[in-house]
């Protein structure tokens, strides 16, 4: 989850289902839940994409826009595993080995490859997590995470990181030559980049705290991330943009909240991200200009809306939500971007 362990929890929410006319036998048939509220006017034509398992989330589009990678707790494994799914529903493949914890999958922009992080080389990580009957999105930062590359079916797997400590939260650059990721190799959780084969590791951030969830801008020149850097308020995180070489860091949010999981739109002019509103349980999606400005709220559901990603053409938004039955699953909707004047001010 890159995002991710991230306070360790996103809480369970229930959505009341409307009743429908009675079926034969006198039992009411539940109506299909409405996926969007009237106040979520920037979104339309929403669809739920994943349904199975205890929980699913953190999905990203393939460059062709026809399939997604995501993580899900399903089957016999008690931990997240990585899957690739055709959006037309014709094919679903588990990519990760099925042992240990996995997270943070991302497609190569031009080759039939993908990266993901896993603890499967550490048998100690196989044990089931403590009993948790909730269906919320959760994450834990495990020291035995390393980054792997494979094809879209899990074959030709190769380990890319070999240092002690957490290596995860990874994404390819737009040209596929480099990978940005989060690592604890120097003691603190910082952003790094490396060549696509795991060589030439370079540190990007140098601030005390947990910097994570990095993604490259569409031109490959910048990296967005979130940072937990306030020692007096450890639950507060802010959104940052920095040049890929570690220069010119800029903070785009400054609110007493957990701002996290930023993702660039295809123009590179905006970031979509999630922030808790009111309390630490209700997360909503916002969009902010990368040049700075006011954030515009996109979702208003009382549950958790997190881990957003734009489609390659920018016409759709995909995110993880508990808006149906309190169960963390993946949704896609068309998005009508807010007008430029909506972002004016702070």
Describe what this molecule looks like in 3D.
By secondary structure, this protein is mainly β. It has one domain: TolB, C-terminal domain (Neuraminidase, 6 Propeller). Helix content is 0%, strand content 38%. The chain has strands at 43-48, 55-61, 67-73, 81-86, 92-94, 102-107, 113-118, 146-151, 158-159, 167-172, 178-183, 190-195, 202-203, 210-216, 222-228, 238-243, 250-251, 259-264, 270-276, 283-289, 296-297, 305-310, 316-321, 329-335. The strands form six sheets. A four-stranded antiparallel beta sheet has the order 1-24-23-22, with no helix packed on it. A hairpin with a 5-residue loop joins strand 2 and strand 3 (67-73). The protein starts with 42 loop residues before the first strand and ends in an 11-residue tail after the last strand.
Question: Which parts are unreliable, with pLDDT below 50 for 5 consecutive residues or more?
Answer: 3-30, 133-139
Largest beta-sheet characterization: 4 strands, antiparallel
Distance between the termini: 29 Å
| CATH homology superfamily | TolB, C-terminal domain
The total domain count is 1
Helix content: under 10%
Radius of gyration, Cα only, in angstroms?
Answer: 19 Å
Quick check: average pLDDT?
89
CATH architectural type: 6 Propeller
Shape: globular
Structural class: mainly beta
| Strand elements, count | 24
Beta percentage is 35-45%
Q: The CATH topology is what?
A: Neuraminidase
Count of separate DSSP helical elements: 0
Run of helices and strands: EEEEEEEEEEEEEEEEEEEEEEEE
């Amino acid at each position: 989850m890159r995002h991710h362990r991230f306070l360790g929890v996103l809480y369970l929410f229930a959505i009341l289902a409307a009743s429908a006319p009675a079926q034969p036998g006198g039992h009411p048939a539940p109506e299909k839940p409405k996926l969007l509220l009237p106040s979520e006017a920037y979104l339309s034509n929403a669809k739920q994409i994943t349904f199975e398992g205890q929980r699913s989330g953190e999905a990203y589009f393939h460059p062709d826009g026809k399939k997604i990678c995501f993580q899900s707790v399903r089957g016999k494994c008690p931990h997240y595993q990585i899957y690739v799914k055709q959006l037309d529903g014709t094919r679903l493949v588990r990519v990760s080995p099925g042992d240990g914890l996995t997270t943070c999958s991302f497609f190569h922009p031009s080759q039939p490859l993908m990266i993901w992080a896993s603890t499967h080389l550490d048998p100690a990580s196989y044990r089931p997590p403590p009993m948790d009957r909730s269906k919320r999105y959760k994450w834990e930062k495990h020291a035995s995470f390393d980054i792997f590359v494979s094809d879209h079916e899990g074959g030709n797997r190769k380990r890319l990181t070999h240092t002690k400590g957490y290596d995860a939260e990874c994404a390819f650059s737009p040209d596929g030559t480099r990978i940005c990721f989060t690592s604890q190799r120097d003691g603190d959780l910082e952003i790094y980049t490396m060549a696509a084969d795991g060589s030439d590791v370079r540190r990007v951030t140098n601030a005390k705290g947990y910097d994570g969830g990095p993604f490259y801008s569409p031109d490959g020149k910048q990296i967005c991330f979130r940072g937990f850097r306030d020692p007096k308020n450890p639950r507060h995180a802010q959104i940052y943009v920095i040049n890929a070489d570690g220069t010119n860091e800029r903070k785009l949010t400054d609110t007493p909240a957990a701002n996290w999981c930023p993702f660039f739109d295809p123009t590179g002019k905006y970031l979509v991200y999630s922030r808790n509103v009111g309390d630490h349980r209700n997360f909503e999606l916002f969009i902010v200009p990368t040049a700075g400005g006011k954030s515009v709220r996109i979702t208003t559901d009382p549950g958790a809306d997190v881990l957003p990603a734009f489609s390659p053409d920018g016409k759709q938004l995909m995110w993880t939500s508990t808006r149906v039955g309190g169960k963390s699953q993946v949704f896609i909707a068309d998005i009508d971007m807010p007008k430029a004047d909506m972002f004016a001010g702070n």
